[in-house]
Amino acid sequence: MSDISFERPDPRDFLDIDSLLSEEEIMLRDAVRTYVRKEIVPNVGDWWEEGELPSDALAKAFGDIGLLGMHLEGYGCAGTSATAYGLACLELEAGDSGIRSFVSVQGSLVMFPIWKFGSEEQKETWLPRMAKGEVIGCFGLTEPDSGSDPASMRTNASRDGGDWLINGTKMWITNGSIADVAVVWARTDEGVRGFIVPTDTPGFSAPEIKKKASLRASVTSELILEDVRVPDDFVLPGVSSMRGPLSCLNEARFGIAFGAIGAARACYESALDYSIERHQFDRPIASFQLTQKKLVEMMVAVQRGTLLALHLGRRKDDGKLTPEQVSFGKFDNVRNALEVARTARSILGANGITLEYPVFRHMANLETVYTYEGTNEIHSLVMGQAITGLNAFT
Amino acid sequence: MNVIVCVKQIPDPATPYRLEEGTNWLIRPEEQILDDTDRYGVEMGLQLVEPSGGTVTVVSMGPAGSGQGIRQALAMGADDAILIEDTSLRGSDALTTARVLAAAVGRREFGLVIAGTESTDGYSGVVPQMLAEILDVPALTYATKVEVDEGSVTIHRQTVAGYDVVTSSLPAVVSVTAGVVEPRYPTFKGIMDAKKKSIETLSMGDLGAERAPEQLVLSIVDAAERTAGRKIEDDGDAHEAIVALLAERKVI
Ligand SMILES: Cc1cc2nc3c(=O)[nH]c(=O)nc-3n(C[C@H](O)[C@H](O)[C@H](O)COP(=O)(O)OP(=O)(O)OC[C@H]3O[C@@H](n4cnc5c(N)ncnc54)[C@H](O)[C@@H]3O)c2cc1C
């Protein structure tokens, strides 16, 4: 206790960032970490290689733990702090970005808009079952011709008697083919509105996108809506502008600022262990100056990114986090995570290109994370506008 | 039926353990975690009370600390806790531990007391038996399976050859092996509820318990370095060499 400061810092928590967490946060974090170590890490390499995901079993397990919609209050949700949600994302993504995506989409992109903009009846209908993992959701915003500029969407809905008719195509939709319900954003005469569409509604189909070289332990789909008819009480009453989808993305991006660091941490730890065990020229490769430089750069990036994420978490819990600050987190932590993954890959040599080690998988996944939820460039422009007052988007 | 589960808070086994100069006592950090082997006891207790609706109380003793390990047991679903916390308990041996636990357990109505067979940091492996003796109830040890029926408990007692089926009346003390049941993952709800649950903190004075005559740790010797194993290269006759080796060790 007394002479602890003379000890070597923990290579896995150099700055003792754990000391900034409450006991409850550590317990919540450890619950996810233990689950990921036991159930995800041993299997996810195979899921990734095969492009398969045992989604029902995962949804059930995540529901049992309380991960789904964990930071929402009521309706069977755990009601944790935003920081705890971030820490959970970090641990999930230390397993795989696809697994974290599954939880992000369910909690931040589907449950959140229903919780925030839904009617009481919509909340009662969907949230408890989604929290338990009995119902899986997806979020349809992006379209084939509308990515970084979602306001240009073509999917539209028009009133038809007491119902709505929705037409259009959504693209790159996580969980699309396995979802029971989709929150679909469409333009209407009343602005952009969110529709809760059960996926068994006639006219709705969701073919899976194959041949992905990234996020393979995650289902990505196209959503095709042809005269999909839903009653008026399937519209989210609380919002009729781009503020709807953008506020969801803001929630999910917050989780990604933490999550990306999880992937980076897994890469760093894998490279650290490997470099101590692997001998060349009769010495562990960790004893070479060039390798140590790489290890230190990775360690520093992971710790710095964790501090940044934690800072954002504290601000969010204080109700002070701005969307531009979320952009900072998504922008900086994802690009650094990608850099860490690439560096770790180089340390593993030939083994670094296999799926026997997690590094290549994380590296490939992070290419998706770099692009979705606002590309690196888009977040640059958000921050650029914030510091100059000048819009460089168009 | 109410179940009491004895649990120990220990320094995280992932961190290096250090012993105090002179006394050879383990230096305990402020933050101690629930001994992993006690998760089996807590899980067993929870499963035994779930059908009947009794309560699970965890009991733990130790010098002062943050109590984190206790809250981990509460997060799994235990109803409440008794924590005997007293700096005078530093370095206490198995007999003192058993006396203190017995004094605490004796304050509650219970059908069954569950403990792990031995702790991960001490490995004495005698506390449950001593506890039963002091409480004057039967001890059923090394359980790989536990069943409770009207007024009786039946266990599978692990032996070298297999298991014995042992039955006794209640109340009783049962020590459970790791693997008796699969401990549940703590849920977020459980973790968040844990801080609302009652932890009764008692001192030695509150219990009127006394330390037993002390066991002294006279010296500590490092375990012998493991010697390199023997490699049998297979030139087509490796199986013979392996059979001979197993026969020599009287395994077959
Ligand atoms: C695996 C995966 C899962 C996904 N899941 C979902 C989901 O569940 N729901 C959903 O709605 N969407 C999802 N997406 C879509 C994702 O959000 C989009 O891919 C992303 O918004 C980028 O759109 P885009 O791919 O059309 O690229 P584009 O917008 O065409 O961008 C191409 C390039 O141009 C750059 N660019 C664009 N505009 C500008 C500008 N003004 N200035 C500078 N550079 C610019 C971009 O930064 C990028 O580098 C997913 C994507 C992937 C890969």
Describe the secondary-structure layout.
The complex is a heterodimer of chains A (394) and B (252).
Chain A: H1 23-50, H2 55-65, H3 82-95, H4 97-117, H5 120-132, E1 137-140, E2 156-160, E3 163-174, E4 181-188, E5 191-198, E6 204-205, E7 220-231, H6 243-277, E8 279-280, E9 283-284, H7 289-317, H8 323-347, H9 359-371, H10 376-388
Parallel strand pairs in A: 1-4
Antiparallel strand pairs in A: 2-3, 3-7, 4-5, 6-7, 8-9
Chain B: E1 3-6, E2 9-10, E3 33-34, H1 36-49, E4 56-62, H2 68-76, E5 80-85, H3 94-105, E6 112-116, H4 127-135, E7 139-149, E8 152-158, E9 163-169, E10 172-176, H5 188-194, E11 199-202, H6 204-207, H7 238-248
Parallel strand pairs in B: 1-4, 1-6, 4-5, 5-11, 6-10, 7-10
Antiparallel strand pairs in B: 2-3, 7-8, 8-9
Helix pairs in contact in B: 2-5, 3-4
The structure holds flavin-adenine dinucleotide.
Flavin-adenine dinucleotide is lined by residues 105, 139-142, 147-148, 172-174, 215, 220, 368, 371-373, 375, 377-378, 381, 393 of chain A.
